[in-house]
Amino acid sequence: MAVGAPPVGIIMGSQSDWETMCRAAQILDALGIAYETKIVSAHRTPDRLYAYAKGAADRGVKIIIAGAGGAAHLPGMAASMTSLPVLGVPVESKALSGMDSLLSIVQMPAGIPVGTLAIGKAGATNAGLLAAAILALADAPLAGRLSDWRQRQTDAIAERPE
Ligand code: RP5
C-alpha cells in the first residue's frame, strides 16, 4: 500500500523556477493540502528524475505538478515513468517568453498525457487548483474548502472599476 508522502509533489527544473512554482504551493497551503517540493532537472539531474518519477506512487504521491522552462522535458519525462496524473507548468523563459516551454510540454505523443497549464504564474496557480479539484473528487471536506475558496474569489470581484 502507498504510504508516507503527501498527496501532491511539486517538482521543478531549477531553483529559478520556484518564483513561479510557489504559486501552486500557495494555493495548496490555502486549501490545506500537504505537498512536497523538489528540484528535479530532466537534463542536469536525470537520475534524480528517474528515482522521483519511479518512486512517487509507491511513496503515496497522488498528483505531480511539474514546472520547467526552455527545453522543458521534465513534465513529459516524469509522465513517461509514472501513471500518476502529471500537470505541466510552462515556466516563462527569458529568451522566448515561455513559448518554448509551452510547446515542449504540451505536444506530447498520444499515450503519455501531461495536463498542460498556462505559461507562468497563472499556470502554476491553476495547477494547484486543478490538483485540488482532482483530490476533491474523493475528499468531501476538501471539496467544501475548494468551493469556499472559489466563492471568496467571486465575492472579491468588484462590479465597477475604481
Ligand atoms: C530549465 O531551464 C529550468 O526549468 C529553468 O526554467 C531553465 C533555466 O534554468 P536555470 O539556468 O535558471 O537554472 O531546466
UniProtKB/TrEMBL annotation:
Substrate binds at S14, D17, R44. Catalyzes the conversion of N5-carboxyaminoimidazole ribonucleotide (N5-CAIR) to 4-carboxy-5-aminoimidazole ribonucleotide (CAIR). It comes from Sphingosinicella rhizophila. The keyword Isomerase applies. Belongs to the AIR carboxylase family. Class I subfamily. GO terms for molecular function: 5-(carboxyamino)imidazole ribonucleotide mutase activity; phosphoribosylaminoimidazole carboxylase activity. It is an enzyme of class 5 (isomerase). Pathway: Purine metabolism; IMP biosynthesis via de novo pathway; 5-amino-1-(5-phospho-D-ribosyl)imidazole-4-carboxylate from 5-amino-1-(5-phospho-D-ribosyl)imidazole (N5-CAIR route): step 2/2. This is N5-carboxyaminoimidazole ribonucleotide mutase. Keywords: Isomerase, Lyase, Purine biosynthesis. It comes from the Bacteria.
